[in-house]
Amino acid sequence: SVLVSPAPRPRQPILAHVALAEGERHPYERIFRSVMTHLMDAATNEYVFVRQFFKENGPDAFDLIFSRTLGLVLEQLENYLFDCHDTLAVLLMIKLTHANRRTMRARKVDVLDAFFDRVANLL
Predict the structure, then answer these.
(1) Helix axis angle, 58-82 relative to 28-54, nearest 10°?
(2) Could you read off the pLDDT tens digit of each residue along the chain, which spans 123 residues?
(3) Which residue, 53, 55, 58, 117, shows the most beta carbons closer than 10 Å to its own?
(4) Which residues in 35-44 are b (16+ Cβ under 10 Å) and which e?
């Protein structure tokens, strides 16, 4: 009989407090993936909440809540890319950005579209 190995499970995002406690070190693209995963999950949950609570003003409320966070992520990415010579890391982050956009579209949450555009432009 042929044994089929299960599909590899996607890596869970990095938990900062665990990584610090265990002295873990990760390449930037892994950190980028983790930050984006946490960001997309938080954005999805917050978007659902503000749409229910603020009704038609939900997208505006979301922008007010997340604008500083998104700005910080973009600033950190730009700072990294300024001195980055790792072509493979950049290509991986481009691929991750496209995959993240598809994930958010599948969730029917479009509030990060402009953010993904800016990330793609930086990369």
Answers:
(1) 170
(2) 445 544 444 567 666 666 667 777 878 888 899 999 999 999 999 988 888 888 777 678 888 889 999 999 999 999 999 999 999 999 999 999 999 999 999 999 989 999 999 999 999
(3) 58
(4) bbbebbeebb
What is the domain partition of the chain in residue ranges? 26-122
What is the DSSP annotation of the chain?
-PPPPPPPPPPPPP-HHHHHHHT----HHHHHHHHHHHHHHHHHHHHHHHHHHHGGGHHHHHHHHHHHHHHHHHHHHHHHHHT---HHHHHHHHHHHHHHHHHHHHTT--TTHHHHHHHHHH-
Q: How many whole angstroms separate alpha carbon 31 and alpha carbon 11? A: 12
